[in-house]
Specification:
alpha+beta, 9 strands, eight-stranded antiparallel beta barrel, elongated, single chain
């Protein structure tokens, strides 16, 4: 009976010590929340629609998912329509997928570098319409701010197009073509769908 009481006492003491060590280790863990999934709109298309005296409209919709602390995947779809002063009308639809790298380990926040590949359908109308199909590669950089459930992203990239734009008869010269700028401005505003937890002093890599 005496031995049994000693064994029970030792088990209780071991449980107490283990529990205390667990609490102490948890107290030393520093946790930081970052966005895991984001949905937003890009008004950079709208800026292009009113550039150089155009009249039109443009908008992009994007979704970004954090893969881990350093990498994310980003997909964007957008469209732009405008009419120039010379009555040339342009309609364009884009879809682009990106891989992004957050060098500070803060995916999806703060500074990032990205590389995108995508497709554009371009329709230009002047007396008659002509369609064109373009493939594109876009290196980019930017910075993302977040607070509560909101996000703001500012960035830009440079667009390399592969393919030829077909212009209707009667459109000649750069002033008539008034092509879209290769510099892609991105001004995103949206909301965080859910967060992920990054443990700074621990084994959690934030996946």
């Amino acid at each position: 009976m005496k031995k049994l009481l000693i064994i029970i006492l030792m088990i209780n003491l071991a449980i107490l010590v283990f529990s205390q060590e667990t609490v102490n280790s948890n107290e030393n863990i520093i946790k930081q929340e970052y966005p895991k999934n984001i949905l937003a709109i890009n008004i950079g298309y709208l800026m292009q629609a009113f550039r150089d005296g155009r009249t039109g409209f443009g908008l992009g919709v994007m979704y970004e998912h954090s893969l881990n602390n350093y990498f994310s995947m980003f997909i964007e779809s957008g469209g732009i329509w405008y009419v120039q002063k010379n009555s040339i009308e342009r309609l364009q639809f884009d879809i682009t997928g990106y891989g992004r790298f957050y060098p500070q380990g803060t995916s999806l926040a703060k500074f990032f570098l990205g590389l995108g590949m995508g497709y554009s359908l371009v329709n230009i109308k002047y007396n008659k319409a002509e369609n064109s199909h373009l493939f594109k590669i876009i290196p980019e950089l930017g910075y993302k701010y977040f607070w509560n459930k909101g996000i703001l992203e500012l960035g830009f990239g440079y667009r390399f197009d592969f393919g030829e734009i077909n212009y209707p008869n009667g459109i000649v010269g750069k002033s008539d073509k008034n092509i879209l700028s290769n510099i892609q401005y991105r001004i995103l505003g949206g909301f965080i769908l859910n967060n992920r937890e990054k443990i700074i002093n621990g084994e959690n890599d934030g996946i």
